[in-house]
From TrEMBL:
It comes from the Bacteria. InterPro entries: IrrE_HExxH. This is ImmA/IrrE family metallo-endopeptidase. Residues 16-105 form the IrrE N-terminal-like domain.
Length: 167
C-alpha cells in the first residue's frame, strides 16, 4: 500500500504492509524489519513507553542485518579485498541497499576486532595473574612476610596484629 511499512496484529492474526513507494531493495529491508516485529515482539507501540518502543526498533534493525546478510552465507562467498567493492557486491548479491550492506560489514568488523581485543586481554591478564600469585616469583622479603602472616594466622592473630580479646 502507499503507506509506511508496518506490522499489524489483530486478534492473533498478523500482517505486514510494505510501502510500495520504496525501491525493491528498500521494500525487502522493510519486510525483514517488520518480520522481526511479528516473530519477536508483541503489543501496540502507540501504547508503549518510548524506551520499550526504542528497544523494539533497535532489535528489529539488528534482526534485519542478520536476516538480510546471514554470516553463514557470507562465509561461502569470495569477497573483493576493497571494502567499497565488497559492500557493492553484497548489495547486489543479496538485493539490499549499499547502506545496509555497509552496516552489516561494519558490524562484522567490530565483532572481529572485539574478539582480537578480548583474546589479547585474556593473554595479558592470565600472564599477570600467574606471576602475581606464584610464590616462586616472589622476592625473599615477600616470602618472609607471607610466612610471618601464615604463622600469625595459625595462632589466631589477625593480620592487623591486634587480638579480638575483650579487656
Amino acid at each position: 500500500m502507499d503507506m509506511n511499512s508496518m506490522a499489524i496484529e489483530n486478534n492473533g492474526q498478523f500482517s505486514i504492509n510494505v510501502d510500495r513507494r520504496l525501491s525493491p531493495k528498500e521494500q525487502w529491508e522493510d519486510f525483514l524489519h517488520e518480520l522481526c516485529h511479528v516473530l519477536r515482539h508483541s503489543g501496540n507501540q502507540m501504547a508503549m513507553p518510548d524506551r520499550y518502543v526504542n528497544w523494539q526498533e533497535q532489535d528489529a534493525s539488528a534482526f534485519q542485518l542478520y536476516a538480510a546478510l546471514p554470516l553463514s552465507m557470507l562465509k561461502t562467498l569470495t569477497l573483493p579485498e576493497n571494502k567499497n567493492e565488497m559492500i557493492a557486491y553484497l548489495s547486489e548479491e543479496f538485493q539490499v541497499t549499499f547502506r545496509l550492506a555497509k552496516a552489516r560489514i561494519d558490524q562484522i568488523e567490530r565483532r572481529v576486532l572485539q574478539g582480537f581485543l578480548d583474546y589479547e586481554y585474556q593473554q595479558n591478564t592470565q600472564g599477570q595473574t600467574s606471576r602475581k600469585y606464584d610464590p616462586s616469583n616472589w622476592s625473599e622479603a615477600t616470602c618472609l612476610i607471607m610466612e610471618r602472616l601464615e604463622f600469625l594466622k595459625s595462632k589466631g592473630v589477625p593480620a592487623s596484629g591486634k587480638t579480638n580479646r575483650l579487656l
